[in-house]
Amino acid sequence: MSNLPKIMDDLVTANHILAHHNVVDSFGHVSIRHPENPELFMMSRARAPACVDIADLMTFKLDGTVVGPTPSPGKPYSERFIHGAIFEARPDVMCVVHNHSPNVVPFTVVKKSRFGAIMHMAAPIGCCVPNWDIANKFGSCTNLLVTNMDMGRDLALTLGNNAAALMRGHGAVVVGKSLREAVFLSIFMEINAAMLIKAQSLGEVTFLSEGEVEANAKGRAGFTLERGWENFCREVGRPYYPQSMEMGPGFSKTDV
Ligand SMILES: [Zn+2]
Fold first, then answer.
1. In terms of CB atoms within 10 Å, which end of the chain has fewer, N or C?
2. Structural domains of the chain in order of their starting residue, each with its CATH number
3. What pLDDT digit, counting tens, does each position of 126-163 carry?
4. CA 174 to ligand 1 center in whole angstroms
């Protein structure tokens, strides 16, 4: 039997979790690559993440074209090109989160500021998260939104092989090899940002080293994500499906 219904339900849950953890508010979005066709992705119609329901989910081609009907009432997110362009550039990515995470945004605008992991739970964001400035290619008169594939592809270039990229004066993108991974990292990136602001007010900061980032990436077993996901589901009163396809590579049942 196809796992699609449970995966779609998990996508709804991810919307609620990200809202609960203040990673998104009325704005921001999360998408998954279609589990049965890598040339498609799924995300909600344009709606506040906390309100998203299963009937809101839409399917898109990687260029942002809508596949099938648009839920009524509704329209797609104008920034869906962020997701399509990243899925296009990164075949390894199964999930994309775009947010305006409140403690992260300050790091997008302060010149010469450095944003990177200072605690192990956020290690996958790396030692120094790249910062995409829309003005570099598209001038200083945009509304800062990523509203076409040109912009999305330029952002994806800055993201490169990283797990996250900042967007100057706007927010961030976070990617993962699974829905759980991207949601987990989005939450801990926001927590890391709040901690970094506090740490910087106390004195000189020690970021994780390259070696520590690498060691954490290797050591992050599926059970860590699973433990978080189960609790996140409980917090928002959503169903928890253990050991679904969303574990990501390297997961085995014995990890739970
Ligand atoms: Zn945005």
1. N
2. 4-236 (3.40.225.10)
3. 999 999 999 999 999 999 999 999 999 999 999 999 99
4. 12
